[in-house]
């Protein structure tokens, strides 16, 4: 009969298998243990041990590997409202002051809700995509010398440092270039949990292929000869996004068989029986 801890918001019905993310089970449970375990502690325990909830994590690794997918699923798992997404290069393009104002408002909203609702406050997630873009600028005088990067990073730092009492904020930074991220942002109390999201291995690629072909398989559109295990072998060094692209491209080849091009292009009636075959995947691979 213990009351849930403050901000203990993890959805009880949450299942990793339903997330549509392939090959990242280990990474996800690791992030969970390192970054969110304290949010399911009994009330007061975190304070007793003297720890604070993690308020910032950094996901890094090659493009198209599922960082955005993970960040959004973390939001769902924690039952948070729709995350606010900030994009590094976009921030630099906005006129000076606007980005800081946006960040200030995000934190102010979270603070207001925490004051009004206390433990009942929902979690506010901020996803900062391509974080390296603003860090590159810091102190370098690059980017036309606007100093926008500098001030955005400083703004983030001061906000993160100022949220001692705020348990309802989570900042998720994402980058392909961890080496570019300002050291100051990676310290304890800031983006303190770092997780590398790498290219999927063969098992991961098999899972991703299954995810992206699940609709066609369920609707009888996938040919009997499609060999997912074989495709996983032949997609070494593919990212999840590239595997998604492969499936789309194979479907497109299958569709093309049903398009008659004459004076007018028309869809053949046989389109209803269309099947995506192994040969379409092989053609897409080529
Ligand atoms: P970037 O660094 O370029 O922003 P990212 O790592 O954030 O890339 P996502 O945007 O999450 O990559 O992935 C792009 C798309 O690729 C996803 O919408 C999804 O369709 C597919 N994808 C990538 N990784 C996976 C995965 N592990 N499982 C299933 N689908 C994936």
TrEMBL record:
GO cellular component terms, A-Z: Golgi stack
Signal sequence bounds: none
AAA+ ATPase domain location: 53-201
GO function term, MF aspect, one: ATP hydrolysis activity
Keywords: ATP-binding, Cytoplasm, ER-Golgi transport, Hydrolase, Nucleotide-binding, Protein transport, Repeat, Transport
Biological role stated in the UniProt entry: Required for vesicle-mediated transport. Catalyzes the fusion of transport vesicles within the Golgi cisternae. Is also required for transport from the endoplasmic reticulum to the Golgi stack. Seems to function as a fusion protein required for the delivery of cargo proteins to all compartments of the Golgi stack independent of vesicle origin.
Assigned protein family: Belongs to the AAA ATPase family.
Protein name: Vesicular-fusion protein SEC18
Higher taxonomy: Eukaryota, Fungi, Dikarya, Ascomycota, Pezizomycotina
């Amino acid at each position: 009969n213990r009351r849930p801890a403050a901000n203990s918001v993890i959805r009880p019905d949450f299942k990793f298998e339903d997330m549509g993310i392939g090959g990242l089970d280990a990474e996800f449970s690791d992030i969970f243990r390192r970054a969110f375990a304290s949010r399911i502690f009994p009330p007061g325990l975190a304070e007793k041990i003297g720890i604070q909830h993690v308020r910032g994590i950094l996901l890094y690794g090659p493009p198209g590997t599922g960082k955005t997918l993970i960040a959004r699923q973390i939001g769902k798992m924690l039952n948070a409202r729709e995350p606010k997404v900030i994009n590094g290069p976009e921030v630099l393009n906005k006129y000076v002051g606007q980005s800081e104002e946006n960040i200030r408002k995000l934190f102010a909203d979270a603070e207001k809700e925490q004051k009004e609702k206390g433990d009942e406050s929902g979690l506010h997630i901020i996803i900062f995509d391509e974080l390296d873009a603003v860090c590159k600028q810091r102190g370098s005088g690059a980017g036309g010398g606007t100093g926008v990067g500098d001030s955005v990073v400083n703004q983030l730092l001061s906000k993160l440092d100022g949220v001692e009492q705020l348990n309802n904020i989570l900042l998720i930074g994402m980058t392909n270039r961890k080496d570019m991220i300002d050291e100051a942002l990676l310290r304890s109390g800031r983006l303190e949990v770092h997780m590398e999201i790498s290219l999927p291995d063969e098992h991961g690629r098999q899972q991703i292929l299954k995810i992206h072909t699940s609709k066609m398989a369920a609707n009888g559109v996938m040919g009997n000869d499609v060999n997912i295990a074989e495709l996983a072998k032949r997609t070494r060094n593919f990212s999840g996004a590239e595997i998604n692209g492969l499936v789309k491209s194979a479907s497109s080849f299958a569709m093309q068989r049903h398009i008659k091009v004459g004076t007018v292009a028309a869809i053949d009636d046989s389109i209803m029986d269309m099947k995506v075959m192994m040969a379409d995947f092989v053609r897409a691979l080529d």
